[in-house]
Amino acid sequence: MSEFPLEHLSPVWTHLTQIQPVRGEGIYLYDADGNRYMDFTSGIGVTNTGHAHPKVVRAIQQQAEKLIFGQMNIVIPPPAVALAEGLNRVTPDPIDTFFFSNSGAEAVEASVKLARQATGKRNIIVFRGSFHGRTAQTMAMTTSKYIYRHHYQPLPAGVFVAPYPYAYFYGWDEETTTAFCLKQLDYLLHGQTPPDETAAFVIEPVLGEGGYVPAPAGFLRALRQIADEHGILLVADEVQSGFGRTGKFWAFEHAGIVPDIVVMAKGMGSGMPISGIGASRALMEKWEPGTHGGTYGGGAAVSLAAAVATLDVLQSEGLVENAAARGEQLLAGLRALQGQYPAIGDVRGRGLMVATEFKDAATAKAVQKGCLEENLLLLTCGTYGTVIRWIPPLVVRAEEIDAALAIFSRALAKAA
Ligand SMILES: Cc1ncc(COP(=O)(O)O)c(C=O)c1O
What we know:
38% helix; alpha/beta; 13 helices; binds pyridoxal-5'-phosphate; globular; 7-stranded mixed beta sheet
């Protein structure tokens, strides 16, 4: 273990801890001294199958021995075909055609490029508090915290921001919040970006970095309807909420809608860098060949094989169902604690994408620190840093949820 780990690393990275894990297994990380940490961050929603799942490790090893890379514009790597077939099986009709890239931001950018070409329109409507990435285009679409655009502005134009239906923020019930947000969206479509200039709505079905807020089903259904009425595409950014995280394979399924484009990354490769978008064949055929692509997307065979294995593990081990059940257990435990500690303002979530929102950021930070002192890793989120997010690997067991709740409860008592 290096004594000065930061000496040659860029200070642009922030670090929750100085832990240097040498091994990961399931929900645990281990350092060189054998200390064990419960990872309830999943590396920000990446290790849905747990750290180093044996089936994913084997798939990576076997693929690396056969073929590491086959450039998609030159050849067609078999794992790319297998992954597209696998994704077709877990994605509702008419989404049946897939494009692959490396990071979440890259995939969001791909969705915007496809939407612009397919509709012949330029403007994009996003929702306040969203996080879509750190490239120039996705920075312009990100409003979760100013830090992501600090001293980088001005950013690309053509991005318009409508309010996200965040009921607790407004202090209203979901119905009132939904009605307000739809009215504001209509106002935007009349005042700033008319439907004939608007290519897409891009929305996180569960707001991630912005505070772990599930959009009410009624809001997503209304959005689908407005999109259809006006020839606007609906893009679901499922980078954080996809791959079983919310107790359904895709979070949009909770609302019974199907987006025109689904954006995926993070949980997709169990830690290997891979992302993608899915759409109907008819929509994908409106994307002019050669106008988008990349060196590695669709060609990084080891990442593709990891994603194929991830799909297999999620399904064969019932991890989506486990996310739903463990999520209920976690919500019930947190609601009980909310009854004891008035510092907790709200408990919400879907599956294992769960939030405890505190009335102030200092308490959230103190509780997070208290948990860290007992080797439980938790992240905060939200524009004001008031939310502790719960995002354990989907392999988490009932007794591990109980253990984490016990640590959280002691940290709450200490912070109160
Ligand atoms: C919803 C959402 N979209 C996009 C991104 C960007 O992904 P990446 O960091 O892989 O570029 C993230 C990352 O946190 C995300 O949560």
